[in-house]
Structure formats: structure tokens, C-alpha cells
Amino acid sequence: GPIAAFEGVSVQYGSVTALDDVTLEIERGEIIGIVGESGAGKSTMLNLLDAATHPTEGRVVIDGTDPQRLSGREIRLLRRRIGMIFQRFNLLGNRTARQNVALPLKLQRTQDPALVAELLDYVGLADRADHYPAQLSGGQQQRVAIARALVTRPGLLLADEPTSSLDTRATEDVLELLAATRRDFGATVVLVTHELDSVAAIADRAAVLEGGVLRSVFPVVRSAARGERDSYL
Ligand code: ADP
Ligand code: ADP
């Protein structure tokens, strides 16, 4: 079945309807873009997928289970299988790239220095492993954040405006890396953005949100003639 599903989901914050009767299945292994203006409900959808918010009406199912039926401990276990990437990277400024990538493991009272080094190499930052975030460009910081998100081997990667703070070149690097992540790790990627170009570059499908309503869901068609991954960006 799908890795996640929204079944008639509404989310109400007082008098504000953040989501209005949203039904959507997210397929295993796909890259789906969720697009919409500020206030459309995109973050609310991600918060539901991370079990940080619950629906006011309807149901969210993540990997076959409704997080509302899980205990606190079970929710923490579920969250370990979900990676998050943010617009502002959310790295710890007083930790090196290597320490930031290792952090999710450390929080689980475990470590895997070889995996951490391998992921830093994977995102192209082997030679920056002992730099602090302030010594890295925005694009490099986001690549550290992607390595950190991958360190727990998540099946689901949630990216909240991951390129909105980046210049064109760094945006292309990060999008290419997200596409590679699906290919190399088999992760499902949910890409929330107001940038249609980003969705056009890497997503299989786009879901359009407007004022909390899911207006349309459609496949993204890329010209087959353009072929390999570095040419479609
Ligand atoms: P987007 O990510 O597309 O900008 P959000 O999901 O953040 O949209 O917000 C959707 C609507 O819900 C907005 O009107 C926002 O102000 C409101 N909203 C989101 N979270 C909360 C909250 N915790 N409390 C009150 N209103 C909220
Ligand atoms: P964005 O719209 O880019 O997602 P925001 O700064 O609007 O970012 O929201 C950041 C977080 O704050 C969101 O995850 C949302 O849950 C929460 N939020 C948004 N709007 C409100 C609000 N009106 N009241 C309380 N929390 C909110």
C-alpha cells in the first residue's frame, strides 16, 4: 500500500481552516511535490506526516498505522523512519558538520562514524566534515542537513521549502541530491515548495493546495529526450 495517506483530512486552528477535506495517497518510492502559496496548508500537511499535528476530522495513515493510535514511544520510533529537511537548514551552530550528521544517532544513544563519513562523502562534503555551519555556504549547509536526515535510513523524507534560501546553483545541487536520494536509498520524498520549477525538475507528481483545499494532483512530464538526471535540471 501507500507509504502515507490522507483520508478526508481537515485541520482547524480556531476559526482558521488550514486543511479542508484533503484526500491523497503518497506512493512508496515517489517524489511528490506539494505546491501552493504561503498559508495554503503545506506545512500543516508535513506536520501531519511527521505526526506532530493530528487531524480535526478524517484520518492520516503513515506506513499502515494511524499515529493517533500510537503511544508516545511508538511515535518516537515512527519518527526515526522519517527524515526532515528545512528551509533554514536547522543545523546546530556549535557543532561541526560531522557532529550535526551524527546527532540523530546520538539522540538514540548509538553511533556509526563510518556511516556518518560515508554520508558526508555522498553529499560531497568529505573535505568539510570538521567545518562549523557558519564556515559553510547555504548550499553546503543544506547538504549537511540532507546527510543528517539520511543517517537514520528513513523511508520517508519530508523537505519543507528546502531550496527557498538558496541561489540557483545551490538549488540545482540540492534538487539533484534529493532525486539521487530516492534512487540510491529508495526513499519516498515529499517536497513542499512554492517554486514550481523545483517540482518540474524532480517530482513524479504535483499536488496543488489552495486555501487548504487540494485543487489538483497531476503527473509531472519531463521530456524523455533530455534523458539523464543532470540534464533535466
Ligand atoms: P503553508 O505552509 O502553506 O504556508 P501552513 O500550513 O503553515 O501553510 O498554514 C495554513 C494556515 O493555517 C495558515 O492560515 C496559518 O496561519 C494557519 N496555521 C498554521 N499553523 C497554525 C497554528 N499552529 N495555529 C494557528 N494557525 C495556524
Ligand atoms: P511557512 O508558512 O513558510 O511554513 P510559517 O512561518 O508561516 O512558515 O510557519 C512556521 C510554523 O509555524 C508552521 O509549521 C506552522 O505550524 C506554525 N504557524 C503558522 N502560522 C501560525 C499561526 N497563525 N499561529 C501559530 N502557529 C503558526
From TrEMBL:
Annotated keywords: ATP-binding, Nucleotide-binding
Pfam families per the UniProt record, alphabetical: ABC_tran
Keyword Aminoacyl-tRNA synthetase part of the UniProt annotation: no
Domain called ABC transporter: residue spans: 4-233
GO CC terms: plasma membrane
Annotated GO MF terms: ATP binding; ATP hydrolysis activity; transmembrane transporter activity
Similarity annotation: Belongs to the ABC transporter superfamily.
Function per UniProt: Part of the ABC transporter FtsEX involved in cellular division. Has ATPase activity.
PANTHER family, sorted: IMPORT ATP-BINDING PROTEIN (PTHR24220)
Subunit: Homodimer. Forms a membrane-associated complex with FtsX.
UniProt name for this protein: D-methionine transport system ATP-binding protein
Source species of the chain: Agrococcus baldri
Biological classification of the source: Bacteria, Bacillati, Actinomycetota, Actinomycetes, Micrococcales
